[in-house]
Amino acid sequence: FKKGLEQHLTQTRSHIENVEEVFAKVGEEAKSEECVGFEGLKKEHEQLVEESSEDLIDLVDTGAAARTEHYEIAAYEGLITMARHLGEKDAVPLLEANLKDEKETLKQVESISKRLAREQAKAEA
Asked: The domain containing residue 116 runs over which residues?
């Protein structure tokens, strides 16, 4: 799971480059801002970690990762819709590339989560 997260971090750097390029294409300056939604997901994860037993932490982590991916997917889908409606055709492929990566990451996280859940169920049986 951790190896996958490291790979996704590298992918995220590429996503940032794509988003910065989108901003450049529309003549705007990209700037970093705090995301209230992500902060909420982070706080929820921290609370679940505190409340969970040690043997469930990996499941808590994969659940948090899945929720984060869903959030990112929704964001990219919204940006793609806006770009299309605003006629920013050059921006769409960059955003679609990011969306594709996020959907693939979600599939991987869900697969890991299912495997961990099966392992946990066997351990408790």
From this structure: 2-26+54-124
